[in-house]
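Sanity check record (used in CI):
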Amino acid sequence: MSRPTGNVRLKAARVAAGFNSQQDLADALTEQAGRMGIRGLSVGARQVRRWESDNPPWPQPDCQRVLVHLLGQSLETLGFTPPWGTGGAKHDLARPASVTGPTKMLGLPTTSAQPSMATQPATAGQDFRSVTHAHRRLYWSVAPTKLHPAVVAHATLGCALLPEAAEPTRGVIAAALAETYLLAGRIEFFDLREPSLAHETLLLALQAAGEADDPLLGSAIIAHMAFIPGWAGDREVAHERMIAARTYARRASASAEFLSWLDAVEAECETRCGDTRRALNLIVHAEGVLSEGNEYPSPEWMDWFSPARLSAFKGNTQLLAGHLPQAREALLEALDSMAPGEEKQRTVVYGDLAAVEASCGNVEEACVYVGDALDQLALTWYATGMDRVRDVRRALTPHQHMSCVRDLDDRLYDWTTTISVLGR
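Expected output for Transcriptional regulator:
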C-alpha cells in the first residue's frame, strides 16, 4: 500500500472539521474571513491545494488567522513550517538567492535550523536594525551588484536571529527584516531587472512584516509588488494588489505623503497599462493629498518619495499621454526640486526630458539631456534610467545622420558603457 503524500496534517484536519473537498474548505475560509472583519480575502481551491501539497507555502498573515480560527489548531500542527525555521524546516525566509551580475552568480545558502529558545539579548534588535538603516542609505550611492549580496546576507542573519529572540526584540528584528527584504526586492526590480526574483523577495518581506504586525510596512511592500504586473501591462493583477495595499494602509496611521505615494504607484501602473487618463486623475488626487499636509509622520524607511518624485511621476505620465508642454514643465520642476541623494531618479528625469524634446523634434536638446543622463549613470548606475536612454535613442533613429546623434552613439557605445550595459 502506498503511503499518503502531501500535507496530510492539513488534509486530516480539513476532513475532521467536516470539509470533504478542498473547495469546501476554501469557501468556509472566505466566509470566516468576512465574519472576522477581514475584507477582501478570498481563498480558492487552488490555494488549499497548494497548502496540501508536499511543500506547502507559509500562509499569509490574514490566511493564518482564519485557518487557525476555523480549524482550531496551530499552523505548525496543521503541517506548515515557519519560513524562518524550526527543527527540520523545509522553507526559509533566507532562501537561496541568485542574481546574474556582470561576472558571476551571487548565491547564499539557507540558514540551518535554529533553536526555539530565546538566546539573544535585548540589544540584538537595535543592532540588527542599525545595519538595515545603513544599507538603506547606501542604496543611493553603492552599485546595486555590490550592495545586493550584502543586503541578502543581512536578511539571512535576521532569519537566524528571529527564532532566538523574545518579544519585544523579536518584533524589532522582524520589522527590520521586512525592511531588508523590501530593499533587496527594490534592487532586484528597479536596478537588476529581475522581476520574478523581486516578487519572491517581496513576498518574504511581506511575511516578515506580518510577523512584526506592521500594516503600513505591509502596505508599502504590496504596493511595490503592484509594480511588477503593472510594468508588464497586467492591469487586473496590479489593480488587485493596489486594493490590498490601500486596505493595509487604512489599518495604520498613514501620512499624507504615504497615501500620495500609493496614488503615484497606481498612476504609474495605469500609465504602463495604457490608461493615461486615469493615471493623470490619480496624480491630481495625489497632489491634493499632499497639499493638505501630514496629520501623521511618514515612516523613516520611506525614503523613495517626495514632492519632486511626484512631479517626475506626473511628467512621465503627461509625456506618454502626449501632453508635451505640460510634461516638460513638470519634469523641469522635478529636476529643480530634487535634493542631494536623489541622483538615481535624476537619470530618469533626464531621460524623460530627452523624450519630450525628441517628440517635439528638438533633436539637439534631446541629445543634451541624454548626455546628462549618461553622466549621472556613470556615477550612480540605475537600470530604469538606462531604459529611458535606450527609449530615446530608438526615437532618434530617423535622425541618426545628424552629428549630435552620432556623438551620442559614441558615448552610448564606448567601451565602459557597453560593457556595463551588457554585463548587467
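The radius of gyration is 24 Å. If this sentence no longer matches the regenerated C-alpha cells, the check is flagged for review.
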